[in-house]
Amino acid sequence: MQIQVLKSKIHRVKVTGADLNYIGSITIDETLLEASNIIEGEKVSIVNINNGERFDTYAIKGKRNSGEITLNGPAARKVQRDDIIIIISYATIDFEEAKTFQPWIIFPNENDNSLT
């Protein structure tokens, strides 16, 4: 049997932009992607702390160490600049493996989205 479990989480980052006219996705600083083990194109769930919105999109790589967190396309209507969000991805794994699986969870600085 396989189940879905939390794979990666970027906990409480500040939205730096919202680009309604971009094709879609969320642009995430490459440093944060690597630290959280999220890859470009991976499906992610977004939880907006400020307004309670929850939605899915996919990750694209932003400039390394830029702190960028930009919601693109229709998702731009669900956030405002400076909102605090949580970015989550899940994995489907074997039930027994899930019992010992350890997700990648990072806690960036909410002021500038840095890891330091």
Strand percentage: over 45%
Helical region count? 2
**Strand-and-helix sequence, N→C?**
EEEHEEEEHE
CATH architecture, by name, is: Beta Barrel
Widest sheet: strand ordering: 2-6-3-5-4-7-1-8
Write down the CATH topology.
Answer: Barwin-like endoglucanases
Shape: globular
Query: Which structural class fits the helix and strand makeup?
Result: mainly beta
**Could you name the ranges where pLDDT drops below 50 across 5 or more consecutive residues?**
none
Helix fraction, binned, reads: under 10%
What integer value in Å does the Rg equal? 14 Å
**How many strand units?**
8
pLDDT averaged over residues: 97
Main pleated-sheet profile: 8 strands, mixed
How widely separated are the two ends? 39 Å
Q: What is the CATH C-level name?
A: Mainly Beta
Describe, in plain words, how this protein is organized in 3D:
- There is one protein chain.
- This protein is mainly beta and 116 residues long.
- The protein has one domain: Barwin-like endoglucanases, CATH 2.40.40.
- The protein is 9% helix and 47% strand.
- It has two helices and eight strands.
- Strands 2-6-3-5-4-7-1-8 form an eight-stranded mixed β-sheet.
- Strand 4 (43-48) and strand 5 (54-62) form a beta hairpin.
- It starts with a strand and ends in a 10-residue tail after the last strand.
- The mean pLDDT is 97.
- Pfam families: Asp_decarbox.
- This is Aspartate 1-decarboxylase.
- Its EC number is 4.1.1.11.
